[in-house]
Amino acid sequence: MAEAHQAVAFQFTITPEGIDLQLSHQALRQVYLSGVRSWKKRLSRLKNNFITGVYPASPSSWLFVVIAILATMYTRSDPSMGLIAKIQEHLPVSQSLSPQCQTVVSAVLFSTLLWLSLIFTMRLCLKQLLSYHRWMFEQHGKLSNTTKIWVALVRIFSGRKPLLYSYQGSLPNLPVPAIKDTVKRYLESVLPLMSASEFERMKSLARDFESGLGNRLQWYLKLKALWAANYVSDWWEEYIYLRSRGPIMVNSNYYGMDFLYVTPTPIQAARAGNTLHALLLYRRKLNREEIKPSRVPGTIIPLCAAQCERIFNTTRIPGEETDTVQHWQNSDYLAIYHRGRYFRLWMYNAGRLLSPREIEYQIQRILDDPSPPSAGEEKLGALTAGDRVPWAQARKQFFNSGINKRSLDCIEKAAFFVTLDDDEQGMMGNDPDGSLDRYAKSLLHGKCYDRWFDKSFSVVIYKNGKTGLNAEHSWADAPVVAHLWEYVLATDSFQLGYNEEGHCKGDINPNLPKPQRLSWDIPQECQEQISESLEVAKALADDVDFHVFPFRDFGKWQIKKFRLSPDAFIQMALQLAYYRDKGMFCLTYEASMTRLFREGRTETVRSCTSESCAFVKANASIPHLHLFCLYVVSKYLGVESPFLKEVLSEPWRLSTSQTPFQNVELFDLVNHPEYISCGGGFGPVADDGYGVAYIILGENMINFHVSCKHSCAQTDSHKFGAQIRRALLDLLALFCPDQNEPTIAGNPQTKKDL
Question: Which sequence ranges are marked TM in the entry (predicted)?
Fold first, then answer.
């Protein structure tokens, strides 16, 4: 009861003698400190918005312009060419100011207008510079003079020490490609996948589309591109993700793993303490815009940071026709799941973030709580794992008022979701290969009810100290979540650390209020719906076949030695592996970012080309998003296009994605090579296809995550994984015919000595 009294600022009771008023000074102090923290955040946000608004100039540059203008005026020069005098004539307070004050005020107003004009001009110039993309096709180490000049100009117009969102107003808009270019590239991409008669038929459909309906649809896209920041992103989010009525578990959500070889502490509560503290440190840096703007690796080219805005305090809300993404400005607590119970854990006390040791103490309280789950509570999360329509109906019927609404609001408005899992996962010594496969399946779907799949991301803390996360896909793409997760892993191990007993460092405050148990009143009808959703989810989860394996024979150092792109090399290996596995080629999806443009998401690289089928290094990218948007416009207009219908109905039997390793500076893979992440993965896109995620780590390792479905007799993740290994080695042999050439993993410097 002590915690309850501390949470109340004042109490009063009516007695025969009058009103007995009791004040809790400690509670009042916490209210005051929380208010101070809230106002500090508002002021910080306001300051950052101003700094971002005047970028690429700085606020101090205004003072420089004002002083420069005033200085020239004192030399009896008029840099405004009469404009200052005009402003002085129309000053509304001219009667109450002396002539000298009027001149100064007019000069300041002119200086401000000049400063704003310079900012607009610089931003426009930077936007034009960032629209130049020829640098992508320059040979590595041999830049043309044009590109060298362009790099110098970008540096000049980029200003100094940009904040996270500083570049947003300067990023170019995604251009709408020409219809003829899109159709031409599409036909080139499907040429190796069709017979001669099929290709001729498709060419005929494409010609009819290009000369007829395509031009009409294109007009609407160009019109949208004039006023929208990105003509694709909102439709991509809605129609690719939010309008899907099937389960998002497996079909949409993806996962990220912990370190492959290292578990910093075997104590579950301690690992949770550091991990959760590091996540909120990242949120603090995000709110203050202290995170450096993401850039194309190895360049000065900025990437769009719009997706970062919804990392925290975000939930996907189910609807009967379409879901929505709801984001709240802030949240001071987490939603915790353990053994069928839901808890609210406040992460701030007296306006400050709890220390890792305090979080560990609070998590241990939850782990030690013996209370059983209430009726229907244990498997409630299955609603988020099943079909979307039943979940939307149940939410509307059973969670729109009373304690159920309050508890559901608590989960949905939490900063993020946390599962304290009773299982042990990770690479186990007695079965390293099988344990990684089970680890992947656990992160992707768990028990189908012990994750909240609608949250922007859910953190899983296992009994043996291993961690991982499950992320919802509609609000952002994997690189944004990967950047967050890399920061958390590095901060946990290299900055926060643990004491000799494996506990978090720091002291315990025993007066912290206990985590709050959420209450539910779930009727029998709702429990039946939970059971139905769980049945659908379990059937889907049981069908997923995963194979996760680290490839250590060689890595990017060996590939780059032959002047090859590591990603292109791996894509070629995947093509070879699939051909050996199936005896044919298939439509292949490789995710590529369009974050060079404002509010960009992903584009499709069709890596199965005529050249790749002939084992020639080449990647062909087509504007798949362009065809998708044309299809959306045709649906809005109520017109049918046989060409678009066939294009967008083709299954992606091989869906691939590279997880970029971004925070390289946070990890020392030379002195601590064991601290490497296993990356993450996703489920197969097609029922008869494969999903392949890979991450290139350091110089000598590539981790693969292969998924497919047991229900398809023609797919096998382990068999395909073996084909990938064989293909990688065979491709390397093409470039390394000398058997004396070392091809095994090792230190690059050692290889040079050889």
Answer: 50-74
| 250, 226: one domain | no
Q: Which of 52, 69, 84 is the last residue of a domain?
A: 52
How far apart are alpha carbons 266 and 499 in whole angstroms?
12
- What are the pLDDT digits (tens) for 263-300? 999 999 999 999 999 999 999 999 999 999 988 877 88
Q: How many CB atoms lie within 10 A of CB 438?
A: 17
Place of tokens 């420089």: 64
How far apart CA 234 and CA 312 sit, in angstroms, is 20
The helix, strand and coil proportions of the chain, stated in percent and rounded to the nearest 5, come to: 50, 15, 40
Q: Which residue do the tokens 């479905």 mark?
A: 709
Reported as half-sphere exposure (CB side, CA atoms, 13 A), residue 695 has a value of 26
> Which percentage of the chain shows pLDDT scores above 70?
90
Pairing of strands 333-338, 467-471: unpaired
- Taking 70 as the threshold, does the pLDDT of residue 722 lie above it? yes
Q: Supply the Cα-derived Rg of the chain in whole angstroms.
A: 29
Residues involved in catalysis: 473
How far is residue 654's CA from residue 589's CA, in Å, rounded to a whole number?
A: 6
Instruction: Identify the bridge partners of residue 592 per DSSP, sorted by sequence position.
Output: 603
Question: Is this structure's pTM higher than 0.70?
Answer: yes
Residue 218 in contact with residue 188, Cβ under 8 Å?
no
Q: Are residues 251 and 231 in the same domain?
A: no
Domain contains 179: no
| Residues 13 and 117 occupy one common structural domain | no
* Phi, then psi, of 461 in degrees rounded to 5: -115, 115
Backbone angles phi, psi at 697, to 5 degrees: -110, 125
State the total domains in the chain.
4
Give the lowest-confidence range in 79-88, 502-511, 542-551, 608-617. 608-617
Name the band, by pLDDT with cuts 50, 70 and 90, for residue 639: confident
Which residue in this structure is represented by tokens 């939410």? Answer: 395
For residue 588, tell me if it sits in a domain. yes
Residue 193 and residue 186 in contact, taking contact as beta carbons nearer than 8 Å: no
State how far the Cα of 89 lies from the Cα of 601, in Å rounded to an integer.
Answer: 51
Same structural domain, 308 and 263: yes
Residue type, 478: A
Between strands 457-461 and 467-471, the pairing is: antiparallel
Q: Which helix (H) or strand (E) holds 118?
A: helix 99-129
Tokens of 671: 């002195």
CA angle 652, 655, 661 (to 5 degrees): 160
Q: Provide φ and ψ at 486, rounded to 5°.
A: -65, -40
**120 and 229 part of one domain:** no
217-259 pLDDT, tens digit each: 999 999 999 988 899 999 999 998 999 999 999 999 999 999 9
Quote the CA–CA distance of 737 and 388 in Å, as a whole number.
54
Q: 270 and 465 in contact (C-beta within 8 Å)? A: yes
| Helix axis angle, 268-287 to 25-54, nearest 10° | 50
Confidence of residue 615 (pLDDT cuts 50, 70, 90): low
In a domain, 191, yes or no: no
Range of the domain at 734: 198-238+546-753
Question: In this structure, is residue 169 part of a structural domain?
Answer: no
Say if residues 409 and 447 touch (Cβ distance below 8 Å): no
Same domain as 267, residue 222: no
Q: Angle formed by the axes of helices 25-54 and 59-74, to 10°?
A: 60
Residues 653 and 694 in one domain: yes
